[in-house]
């Protein structure tokens, strides 16, 4: 008898070794098309906000966004890394427009986040094709084993974060995360990563989704945190936002709105 390979075990082994792993064809084309339209709608609603900055402050009362980050296919992936009790910590569209999309300087997410302990995983959902030409995510494999380094401010070049890791990064070790719409790249909070500017004629949009086990405490002053939503299981140590109710006069219209 031939045994079925334990793909979950292989995935976690790869993640433990490299600090990232890719899942292909996670989200169907129809939902990705809605996400793409959602980004365009958000840009119309917030014309003074750069499309790389469409974070949870603009999404906290957005039923489509909550529907997307709650999708069972995404939460099932997250649960492989954080366990059965899953909450959302934060989420952010980073949409780099053609020719002018800003770079993301090398950094570790753990340097920014008010979480205790730093048990969290990022799912990077590709809304567009993501390639070296349009500024795909780049990772340094294995760098998640390093301590969280200090940050230094960088305002001399246009960039999304306004800061970078305060240590030298060997870019020759970087791996490009080439993704198709609907693919998901998962990475560790301490992995060193960034992305180049988009100088191509093609938009590069992805949704970052930060899932935590409900045993991880959000230590920010504002409680409940604007993007804290309980998604599955026991609520644990945090308080959460109520799920928004769809209002056609205020919200992005989508297939499962009612």
From TrEMBL:
Keywords assigned by UniProt, alphabetized: Dioxygenase, Oxidoreductase
Biased composition (Basic and acidic residues): 248-258
Protein name: Ectoine hydroxylase-related dioxygenase (Phytanoyl-CoA dioxygenase family)
Any one GO MF annotation of this record: iron ion binding
Organism for this UniProt entry: Microlunatus parietis
Keyword Oxidoreductase: yes
InterPro entries, sorted: Phytyl_CoA_dOase-like
Region (Disordered): 239-258
Top-rank taxon, per record: Bacteria
Gene3D superfamilies xrefs: q2cbj1_9rhob like domain
């Amino acid at each position: 008898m031939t045994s079925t390979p334990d793909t979950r075990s292989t995935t976690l082994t790869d993640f433990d070794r490299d600090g990232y792993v890719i899942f292909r064809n996670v989200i169907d084309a129809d939902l990705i098309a809605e996400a793409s339209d959602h980004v365009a709608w958000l840009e119309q609603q917030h014309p003074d906000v750069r499309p790389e900055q469409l974070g949870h402050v603009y999404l906290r009362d957005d039923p489509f966004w909550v529907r997307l980050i709650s999708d069972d296919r995404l939460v099932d992936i997250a649960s492989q890394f954080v366990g059965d009790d899953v909450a959302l910590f934060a989420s952010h569209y980073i949409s780099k427009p053609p020719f002018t999309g800003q770079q993301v300087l090398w950094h570790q997410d753990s340097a920014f986040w008010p979480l205790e302990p730093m048990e969290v995983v990022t799912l990077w959902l590709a809304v567009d094709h993501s390639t070296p030409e349009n500024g795909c995510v780049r990772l340094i494999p294995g760098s998640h084993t390093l301590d969280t380094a200090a940050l230094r401010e960088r305002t001399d070049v246009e960039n999304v974060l306004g800061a970078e890791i305060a240590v030298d990064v060997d870019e020759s070790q970087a791996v490009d995360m080439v993704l198709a719409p609907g693919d998901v790249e998962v990475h560790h909070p301490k992995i060193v990563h960034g992305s180049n500017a988009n100088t191509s004629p093609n938009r590069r949009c992805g949704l970052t989704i930060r899932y935590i086990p409900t045993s991880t405490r959000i230590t920010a002053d504002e409680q409940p945190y604007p993007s804290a939503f309980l998604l599955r299981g026991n609520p644990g140590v945090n308080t959460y936002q109520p799920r928004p109710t769809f209002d056609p006069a205020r919200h992005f219209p989508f297939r499962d709105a009612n």
